[in-house]
Amino acid sequence: MTLFAGEGDLVLTHVSTPYAATAGSFTVVYDDRLAEQLSPSQPFAGLTTSAIAKQLASSCPQAAVLVCDNPRRTYADILSSLFKAKTQPAISGGDTVRIDASSSVHPDATLG
């Protein structure tokens, strides 16, 4: 991944789709039509291909434009490393109740 344009010290606060990108967003721009949807006045980081980088840098001068070969895959890898899936052990409520480990149960819930 290479910084094509913009500031390298931009503070990112959240991830978003290109359609919802605001100041502090980290997003992926894998299609030139997505580049047209981004706000030109927002400082965000956009991960894209070298073919789209010039268009993105031109239309969004406040953006940090990052270039890689496969932005969709790289974006997924980055998000996977930042946000781990929440796991919990299976919960049992005696002989009659079983709750799958992938379920979410309110901490104050009681089974009976």
Task: Write up this protein.
A 5-stranded mixed beta sheet has the order 1-5-4-3-2, sandwiched between helices. The protein has helices spanning 32-35, 50-59, 71-82; strands at residues 2-5, 14-15, 25-29, 45-48, 64-67, 91-92, 98-99. The model has no long low-confidence stretch (mean pLDDT 85). The protein has one domain: 3-Layer(aba) Sandwich (Udp-n-acetylmuramoylalanyl-d-glutamate--2,6- Diaminopimelate Ligase, Chain: A, domain 1). It is built from 3 helices and 7 strands, in the order βββαβαβαββ. The termini are far apart. It is elongated. With 112 residues, it is of the alpha/beta class. α2 (50-59) links the parallel β4 (45-48) and β5 (64-67).
Summarize the structure in short.
This protein has 112 residues and is of the alpha/beta class. The protein has helices at residues 32-35, 50-59, 71-82; strands at residues 2-5, 14-15, 25-29, 45-48, 64-67, 91-92, 98-99. It is elongated.
